[in-house]
Amino acid sequence: MPRNGRKAASGDEEVAPKHRKTDSNGVPSPFCFDTPDTVFQSLISPVGQEEFFTDYWEKKPLHLQRSDPGLASYYKSLFQLSDLKGLCAQGLTYARDLNVCRSVQGNKTVLNKEGRVNYSQLKKDFNQKATIQFHQPQRFKDELWRIQEKLECFFGALVGSNVYITPQDSQGLPPHYDDVEVFILQLEGEKHWRLYSPTVPLAREYCVTLEERIGSPTHDIILKAGDLLYFPRGTIHQADTPVGVDHSTHLTLSTYQNTSWGDYLANVFPNFLYDSLKTSDITRRVGMPRRILMGANAAPDTSRQLASLLRSVADQMERGEHELRAGDMKRDFALHRLPPYTPGQDDISLSAGKMPALEDTVCLRFKDHILVSLETCQSPSDGSVSLVVDVMHSLRNRREKHMMGQSGDDDDSGGDDDSGEEEEDAPSEVTWHILHRQCT
Predict the structure, then answer these.
(1) Are residues 328 and 265 in contact, defined by beta-carbon separation less than 8 angstroms?
(2) Which of 1, 12, 5, 13 is closest to 353 using CA atoms?
(3) Residue 387 pLDDT
(4) Average pLDDT over every residue of 188-196
(5) How many CA atoms, within 13 angstroms, populate the side-chain half-sphere of residue 275?
(6) Mind listing the pLDDT tens digit for each residue in 285-296?
(7) Mean pLDDT, residues 127-133 taken together
(8) Where would you tag: which of 47, 244, 269, 273 has the fewest CB atoms within 10 A of its CB?
(9) What pLDDT sits at residue 8?
(10) From CA 183, how far away is CA 42, in angstroms rounded?
(11) Helix (H/G/I), strand (E/B), else coil: 104
(12) CA dist 62 → 207, 228, 402 (Å)
């Protein structure tokens, strides 16, 4: 979303060098941060984007075996077991920040305690075969903030993350499927993954599945440090740390929750239909049959009439006669996404320097963080309706609140149980911001 830079004289300025050679831990970074495209390409390398979206996206799993010591070292720097002690000292809370759990023969047990996380107790649980499920580590880890912020710009959708640390000969979660596209990065050790054919392709919800009902695995994979595994939403999966491997740490990046054509249509259609009612064609303004809302038998041709009206609306949509307005989805994205990657800076939305004049040339910083929405607005005084242009930005979003808006349970998504989300912020803390509202 928009942000005023200190100086807007030299084109698309970024808050930090576009391509950093090392991460915050001094480990050489194999990621290219020039653009959102280059970050995603770094993630799926050596597969190209065209091949990925043609052959794999929403279709089938992809396993990338890297055998690259440099990439393995970088992955490990993103999050590792030894980070937990320092993070616990920051006042972590069970359920909100992490879960402690174990799955035995398809039955999951949550071992969370009350209140603050005690590192000694956490270590004791881990030594007794429990998995540590750390919610949204991008709130604490700068490099994950940097990666996920770019990926949210790439997808135009929220990107959550979670870390799973599982001791040897143990499993954290039972077989299940998620409602998100999943990218698994193996950070430490090895993890044994079994994937199964979806019972609900491109699922819209998280669901635990009974092992006796899912058949044989379509993929039986050992992920090693530096490897990546992608699978579409709805893919049934389970994972365990093999015997002989001290522990496994993997990062789940997840996206495209509630971002289907159906979701978009549900948001766009009411606005489009409202606009179409104001045209010279009175067909859709003719009254519906009497008593239909009272449960009376509808006229035999009611369904046919509605289908005919829908077809005429679809024809208008195809001809582009009205604006496609997805204001609710845009507002939700603006509200919940990460702010631009600006470590060490406070309020980046504050302007530095004088306001531009009409004849000035203005260059935008963070233009991927600006969303424009055209909405209807009814006057409280006389009831008149006008169109309003909202220009929204996410510069005031708080990184520590990212993906923490709702409670979840136990998927690999980063949007439900993986997210460890809480209740929505109070209205005073709403973080999307309208830069300008202009009636038309």
Answers:
(1) no
(2) 5
(3) 77
(4) 98
(5) 20
(6) 998 888 788 766
(7) 98
(8) 244
(9) 34
(10) 13
(11) strand
(12) 22, 8, 28
Within 10 Å of residue 117's Cβ, how many Cβ atoms?
Answer: 23
Percent residues over pLDDT 70 in the chain: 84
Query: Cβ distance 390 to 29 under 8 Å?
Result: no
Q: Which two tokens stand for residue 18?
A: 């576009």
**Cα separation of 84 and 322, whole Å?**
53
Asked whether the beta carbons of 421 and 31 are under 8 A apart, the reply is no
How far is residue 421's CA from residue 96's CA, in Å, rounded to a whole number?
A: 6
Nearest to 109 by CA among 101, 117, 118: 101
3-state secondary structure of 148: helix
Quick check: 249 and 78 in contact, CB under 8 A? no
Q: How far apart are CA 213 and CA 175, in angstroms?
A: 10
Gap between the Cα atoms of 116 and 30, Å rounded: 36
Q: Are 24 and 143 in contact (CB under 8 A)?
A: yes
Over residues 371-420, the pLDDT tens digits come to: 988 877 777 887 777 778 888 899 999 999 999 975 444 455 554 444 33
C-alpha Rg value of the chain to the nearest Å? 25
Number of Cβ atoms within 10 Å of the Cβ of 239: 24
Q: How far is C-alpha 439 from the chain's CA centre?
A: 32
The count of C-alpha atoms lying within 13 angstroms of the C-alpha of 52, restricted to the half-sphere facing its C-beta, is: 19
> What pairs with residue 132 in β-bridges?
100, 165
CA 78 to chain centre: 18
The pLDDT score that the predictor gives to residue 339 is: 95
Q: Which residues contact 51 (CB under 8 A, 6 or more apart)?
A: none
* Separation CA 102–CA 413 (nearest Å): 17
